[in-house]
Specification:
Largest sheet: none
Structural class: mainly alpha
Helix content: over 70%
Number of helices: 3
Shape: elongated
């Protein structure tokens, strides 16, 4: 396990938890789904840190789009 992947998993899981809570309070299924995906995606992406960082960044940006 790569240290960069561990850091990315922790960072994006925290962002995912905040997005999930925001979606729950605002009754927004989109934000709840993206938040859950951010919390769980590190278990299914390949073992490279680049995939982990890229997927996390893409899902985080999707949370910010209207």
């Amino acid at each position: 396990m790569d240290f960069g992947k561990v850091i990315a998993g922790f960072l994006f899981s925290a962002v995912g938890f905040v997005a999930w809570r925001y979606g729950r309070r605002r009754d927004s299924p989109r934000h709840m789904l993206l938040g859950a995906a951010l919390m769980a995606y590190t278990f299914v992406v390949p073992e490279t840190a680049a995939w982990t960082w890229g997927t996390g960044a893409a899902l985080s940006l999707a949370c910010l789009l209207p």
